[in-house]
Amino acid sequence: MNKVVEKKYLLAFVLVTCCFALWGFANDITNPMVKAFSKIFRMSVTDGALVQLAFYGGYFCMALPAALFVRKYSFKAGLLMGLGLYAIGALMFIPAKAIGSYYPFLIAYFVLTCGLSFLETTANPYILSMGAKETATQRLNLAQAFNPIGSLAGMFIAMQFIQAKLNPLSTEERALLNPEQFDAVKNADLTVLSRPYIAIGAVLVVFFVVILLLVKNQAKAEVASTDQHFGPTIKRLWQNKPYRYGVAAQFFYVGVQIMCWTFIIQYGTRVFMDEGITEQAAEVLSQRYNIIAMAIFCLSRFVCTFLLKYIHPSKLLTYLGIAGAVFVLGVIFIDGRAGMVCLVAVSACMSLMFPTIYGIALTDTGDDAKLGAAGLIMAILGGSVLPPLQARIIDGDGLFGIASVNLSFVLPLACFVVIVLYGNFITKNNK
Q: Which domains, from first to last, does the chain contain?
């Protein structure tokens, strides 16, 4: 029986797996910032959601250049470029805070996620290549299992060191401040918000040096094997239906993940404020539920990795997609804390999806995998496009007696339907 990770790859596997945790940290310290920036700058939810547009827009714009870069050079070079851009973007919070306006932060997020795009475009196919093809999906699920550990750290820091330390004035109270008072509160809050990003920037510089010194370059033959023409590669990938449909499924999966983890804050704030809790306390309590959701996501990733030994990946993907859709229906139609429980439960269903769709889509792509990986990372654009659409629904008035924040979860519901269709397609075609 083939080992999941061969001994010769063990050190590289451990270090690359650390990168999964590092980008998980960035993703999930950032999700609550939609609410934080909306409050700090007295903006609508839709304007605050521009954070996600900038964040996941960086993934989209840099994925293809990252794949071409890795194909020309090496996996190690891709990792170093990703860590470097990630560190630069995080440290750009220093001048953004000094300027004190919203858009420099969006630029910092964009640069940061250009680095994350390099990391993901490099790390995922690198992990797939570390051993036998038969264990590739299982190996990627194992590495991805450490992504939510970083996410949990990001959520905890967002809750304890940002949300809990922001000025407790509510959105309505901030609207009553005069310009001088508003600037004082805003600048203090931006200092609180920026510190964790600056700290992770310093950590990334250290990790950059570790990768530089400890990870070996691939053999020249391995890099040279990817030297195929761009046009024919794109044509082959387009003709590969499991890959083509996989890119679409990944777009909607990332969208549903980011929507559920971003707007749990808005959903929970409304639920808990209806119980008489203040806005800031409701936000912190909502983030605790978000951390519980991520802990369940993390545990479920290990459980699903085990189940993959006995259940075909596409079948498990289909089953979890159906369960996710059922829980989202609960989020829409069940109010109060029961609806929050349904929203938390959705995370258990999502844990398998990204690496499984990724692994299935790249199966049998051969030397096209590095460029194919770019398409799957570009599909992360779903996390940029769909949250602002959900935010517009949240900023509306609701419908048929359903609160607008509840109603907005029709978009995650539609995403799960697409994922179920993809899993069913792969199962029927015995991929």
A: 7-428 (1.20.1250.20)
